[in-house]
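[User] Could I get a sequence and C-alpha cells?

[Assistant]
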Amino acid sequence: MTNGSVSPVQIREGERDGTPDGASLYDLLHSPSKRYDLEAHEVRRLVRHVTPDSKTLLDVGCGTGEHLRHLLPHFDVAGLDSSQTMLRAASVKLPTVQLHLADMRTFRLDERFDAVICMFSSIGYAPDLASLDSAIASMAMHLAPCGVLIIEPWHHANVWPENHRYTETVLDEAMNVKRAVSVSVADQVSTLRMHYEIADVNGLHRFEEEHALRLFSVDEYLGAFDSAGLSARHLPIGFTGRGLFIAKP
C-alpha cells in the first residue's frame, strides 16, 4: 500500500518499455476463469436491492478496472487502487472514469457514493487488524447516508490450507505465459510467491512477485464493520467461495 495521498492517474508517453509484468499479464491470467461480467451483475443486483435509486459507485482496490468496465453502463463510477501500474491498465479501458492512486486505509475523496465495493479480496492486503479497521472506516466515510458497502474478503483463517502450490498456463496471439504459485501460511498471513515465465516475439522473460494477504476471521471483519458504525451481514459463499460482506450505516 502507498501513503494516503490521492491523485488521478494518467498514462504518459514512454512510461512503458513493453516488458511484461504482473499488471500487464493480470487480465490474460484471469480471463479464462473469472467472470467479471457475472460478478458485476450480482453487485448491481445487491446494490439496487439495498439502495434502489443508487447512481454512484466507488470501487476500492479496482485493479485493472474489469468490474468497473461492466458496472459503467449502470452507475457513475470511480476507481481507487494503490498500484499505479494496475491503474494505468484500467485507464486504457476506462478513459472517461476518474481513477485515484491512494491507500485504502487512509484515502479521502471529496465525495460520497451510493455504493462502495472492494472486490477480489483486495482487503486481504491489509496487514493487520488496525489496518483492516482503518480501511473499512475509510470506505464507510465515503458512503452516502443510505449507501451500501460490499466487500469480498480473502480466505478466512480457519478454512485456508496451510501450504499448497499450483501452476497455470495461458496463451494468446502474442505470448505464452506460465505462472507457478507457491503458498505458505504463518501467523495468519498467507504468502503467495509467483514465478512467471513468458515467451513472446522478444524472447523468454522470467520474473517473480510476492504477495502477502492477511487471513482475517469472520468475527474480525464484523468487528471492523461495527467499529466503523456499520451493520453488516456475512454471506459464506459469495461470488467465488470466499464469502461476501454487505454493510450499511
User: Anything to note?
Assistant: Confidence is low (pLDDT under 50) at residues 1-17. The first strand starts at residue 7 and ends at 8.
